[in-house]
Structure formats: structure tokens, C-alpha cells
């Protein structure tokens, strides 16, 4: 009798255990933060679509970190990439997974041709001073890391050529490979497009790009030039 009960418990556990497990069980962030509204994060739909192959399934990406909104998850933010490893999307490795609000391999992007890039269009010019990204948040996979790359920003045009003068380089990395979700900081800068330009590696995977820039990053301060022009207008008028 006891043996039968024990076997029944095992069968029950097997039946209710999901195929794609989340390792960290991270909570979903707020859907709004002040005037900022974020993309929908439907983890059931993401898990159902995920081909996790027994590894960690989708986990929530923060909509807010340290009381700052994740600009990459704004409703109108759009991803783009220079190339995409073929044969996997939509089960894994789609360009739109760069900012879909979920970590881990089956919700990641993988580059094809190198050098190349992945980027987020925030939708408006904002103050930016740090990003987070990694290869696989749960570390179920430790391949396809990124160790040789630049962070570029632009305000007027997202030229396909990362060498175009519309891009400003704010960070250069040549060293330890980025595997875990990692914070990268740089000086405050105005940006609408934020690009990770990858120069060389073994086939980079990025499971999510997060972008931050302060408590109210959309409140971009006026430039010295605009301030000078306004001062001159007032002087001419009065």
C-alpha cells in the first residue's frame, strides 16, 4: 500500500512539472512607472512557445531597476539586428527577443555574420548611462559569449554602418566574456538608438538588452546652444 502511494506521488510530480523550468522564479515588474508604459509580458505564452529542451525557460526581465525604468521595454521600443542565425525562430533566437521582456536561451537572439550588431530603438531621445545584457541569464548555456564589442548611441539616424558619423561610441570592451547578465555603465549621453556592435567572437547570443538612464530619463536637459539661443531671443525682444 505504501509503495503504491509513493509511486502515485512520483507520477503526480512528473505530470505537473513544466517542461521549461525557470531557475530564479523572478517576479514580474510593474506594467507602468510614472508616465512610462511597458510592453506586455505574457510569460505563459512565452513558455508555451519556448523550445527549452529541458533547460531554463523564460524568466521576467525587470521593467524597473533601482527605481529607474527599463527604456528597452517601453511599449514603442523596437529591436533590430544586422543578421540572425537561421533555422530556429520562432522557437528560439529571434531578433524580437532582444527586448521581449524575457531572459534565457529560448528567448534570445544569436548573430550570424560577424562583425555585426544588435540594437534597440527607444522611440524618443532620452538620457542613457547604463545597459545590462548577457548570453544566458540562467547560465544553462555558457557558450556564445561576447568579449569584443562597442556600445554606440545615436539620436538622429540608426545607420546600418556602425562607422557612420551619426553614431557615438560610449563604451569599448575587449576582455572578459559577457556570459551572465552584466551591467555596463558609461557617462550620461542622449540617445534614441542604443547598439551593441560585435567585432569578433564565437557566435554571440544576447538574451535581452536592458537600457537605463535615471529616474526620469526622458527629461533631457537643453543643450548649451539652445540655452544661448533662448537668451539671445529674450535680449532682442526686451
Would you kindly provide a written description of the structure presented here, covering whatever features stand out?
There is one protein chain. The chain is an alpha+beta fold and 238 residues long. It has helices spanning 2-16, 43-49, 224-237, and strands at residues 32-33, 36-37, 59-60, 64-65, 68-69, 78-81, 102-103, 109-110, 116-134, 146-154, 168-178, 182-198, 205-206, 208-212. Strands 6, 9, 10, 11, 12 and 14 form a 6-stranded antiparallel beta sheet that branches. Strands 1-2 form a two-stranded antiparallel sheet. It has a two-stranded antiparallel sheet with strand order 3-7.
Q: Quick gist of this model?
A:
By secondary structure, the protein is an alpha+beta fold. The protein is 15% helix and 34% strand. Strands 6, 9, 10, 11, 12 and 14 form a six-stranded antiparallel β-sheet that branches. It has a two-stranded antiparallel ribbon with strand order 1-2.
Reported by name, the CATH topology is: Jelly Rolls
The CATH class is identified as: Mainly Beta
Strand segment tally = 14
Relevant CATH superfamily: Galactose-binding domain-like
Query: For the terminal residues, how far apart are their CA atoms?
Result: 97 Å
Number of domains: 1
Oligomeric state: single chain
- Portion of residues in beta strands equals 25-35%
Structural class: alpha+beta
Largest sheet: 6 strands, antiparallel
Order of secondary-structure elements: HEEHEEEEEEEEEEEEH
Amino acid at each position: 500500500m505504501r509503495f503504491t502511494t509513493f509511486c502515485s506521488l512520483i507520477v503526480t510530480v512528473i505530470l505537473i512539472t513544466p517542461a521549461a523550468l525557470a531557475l530564479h522564479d523572478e517576479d514580474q515588474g510593474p506594467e507602468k512607472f510614472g508616465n512610462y508604459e511597458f510592453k506586455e509580458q505574457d510569460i505563459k505564452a512565452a513558455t508555451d512557445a519556448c523550445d527549452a529542451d529541458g533547460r531554463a525557460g523564460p524568466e521576467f526581465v525587470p521593467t524597473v531597476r533601482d527605481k529607474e525604468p527599463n527604456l528597452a521595454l517601453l511599449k514603442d521600443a523596437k529591436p533590430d539586428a544586422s543578421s540572425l542565425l537561421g533555422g530556429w525562430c520562432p522557437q528560439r533566437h529571434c531578433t524580437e527577443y532582444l527586448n521581449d521582456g524575457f531572459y534565457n536561451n529560448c528567448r534570445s537572439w544569436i548573430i550570424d555574420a560577424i562583425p555585426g550588431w544588435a540594437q534597440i530603438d527607444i522611440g524618443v531621445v532620452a538620457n542613457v548611462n547604463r545597459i545590462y545584457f548577457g548570453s544566458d541569464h540562467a547560465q544553462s548555456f555558457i557558450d556564445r559569449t561576447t568579449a569584443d564589442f562597442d556600445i554606440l548611441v545615436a539620436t538622429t539616424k540608426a545607420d546600418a554602418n556602425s562607422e557612420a558619423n551619426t553614431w557615438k561610441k560610449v563604451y569599448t570592451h575587449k576582455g572578459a566574456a559577457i556570459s551572465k547578465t552584466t551591467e555596463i555603465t558609461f557617462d550620461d549621453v542622449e540617445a534614441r538608438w542604443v547598439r551593441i556592435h560585435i567585432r569578433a567572437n564565437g557566435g554571440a547570443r544576447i538574451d535581452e538588452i536592458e537600457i537605463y538612464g535615471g529616474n526620469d530619463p526622458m527629461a533631457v536637459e537643453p543643450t548649451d546652444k539652445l540655452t544661448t539661443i533662448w537668451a539671445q531671443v529674450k535680449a532682442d525682444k526686451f
